[in-house]
């Protein structure tokens, strides 16, 4: 948000719909230790790893750590005892050998019978044998692991208790834990002092830090920054809604990196060593390539993926780093209304906001094209081109005549060819002196009216689904209805929730879903200011996708935007869209219980990898002479078994990372298989993740 917080509230919200009244900040669940949170280590890690307090494990250490305590200590002790005897007798033997070798060759100190020569020989023998003993028996007894696991922590605690930190060390530790060090060093000590006296949450910290970075870009803004913080403290540069926290916040977030932790990557051979037992998280770096999740109802797609991501995007919006649009059924658990600034519920008379069917597009032809594609059902997409043209022939002239787009009832009347509506349009064009520009469009529509293949009649029938009493005022364009939300405001940190009437008007909900996703893809790619991450979450995307949207998903990677799409099954999509959709998204999630034909697409997308395969072959033992053969015959007569030889063969073969059968039948409940791709192109192979914790 930069220094926008220093401006007036009216100036900040002129380009956005009216936001609801500020939500009261809920009481903190536990006291928030800002210093500890801000100074927590966040080492570099692969995409998908929750980096706060993450410790990268050495694979060898991780393997050794699996050994239980008593077997490890017993093995170390036995090797120590054997090593001690080997050291005693080895030292004496090596000393005798060195003396003998010195006398035979005449080498100085080794051949001298003096006390100095004997001490030199003894030293060489001790050092040589000790090195060999430690190397051999230390490795077999895993002494380094015993030292790391038990001796080192005990020694560290002892040293810490006995040697108090110096004043310089205490001062340096305090400086590192001071979350406002950069403000003090940058000339804003007064602002830092005000913040020290207040309870500052992680949302406040990230928002103020972002404003500070904007002020650092131009020194002229530094006085305004200090003044704003001095006046408002932790509420400085607040979100336009003045909200500073989400009520009922449940997930673990690290807003410094924009990460939300969803679970834990399992410690299984299929997972890469860098992710085993590490926290699993999503952030704008991977969501910027868009995510597709497939799984039956009840497997946790909404509760364990969509809701946490929606919560993360809303928190980032409050911190001034993102904008969020969340689409789902009215009864979908995507967070309470208090999480959002704008709640749109077509079909609900209590809804405060309406929806702009044209997305506030500047070009009438572009607005009409998107609306036409959204209106047509999947089985009529072959007529999309003629329908698009027909709609453009009505929307363009109406916009030129009246300076606005037509409402649902007005557009339906024009497409149906009602004489009164057409006459009013012609009068408006004459008054605007634009009739000549659109005369051919009107004549073409007049020629098509009444024909069996008239796309206008088809579009009018589809618009009738939105021209219902339940939707009164929801799509008004003349200022008489509810304030319309337009998707072009994605350069503001808004939080938007759209509740689709899937139960009462299912086909209208499908059209609106397709329209909103298409508008988001267009608006996000056309933003001039891309400093905010634009995130879209669609709880059920089965009706929201078409070929144009799938193509547009790939363009979002360079626009600092991403889409999270949830599907019950890929069968809900036209077959021609399934493979292109898999190629358009960079992150894929398979939930338990998916159909084998859905698992086949995941399996093909994830490909194969090399695995070490061991084959054991058993064959009858025919070796040896008469005595051994007679013994084998006697054994067979007594036990009924034939003596066999065993041969073991190890080779590397290509195997599917996850087979369709594994995805369909082997995934445990509460888990998912997730593959990630970062915006930079870095990829993470499929991970088995436990999403329950």
UniProtKB/TrEMBL annotation:
Show the ranges annotated as biased composition (Pro residues): 19-29
Q: Where is this region: Disordered?
A: 1-30
Q: Name one GO molecular function term.
A: ATP binding
Q: Which Gene3D superfamilies match?
A: P-loop containing nucleotide triphosphate hydrolases (3.40.50.300)
Sorted alphabetically, which InterPro entries does this protein's record hold? P-loop_NTPase (IPR027417)
UniProt keywords, alphabetically: ATP-binding, Membrane, Nucleotide-binding, Transmembrane, Transmembrane helix
SUPFAM superfamilies linked: P-loop containing nucleoside triphosphate hydrolases
Superkingdom, taxonomy of origin: Bacteria
Q: Where are the transmembrane segments?
A: 76-98, 118-138
Biased composition, class Basic and acidic residues, residue ranges: 1-13
Q: What is this protein called?
A: ATP-binding protein
Biological source species: Kitasatospora purpeofusca
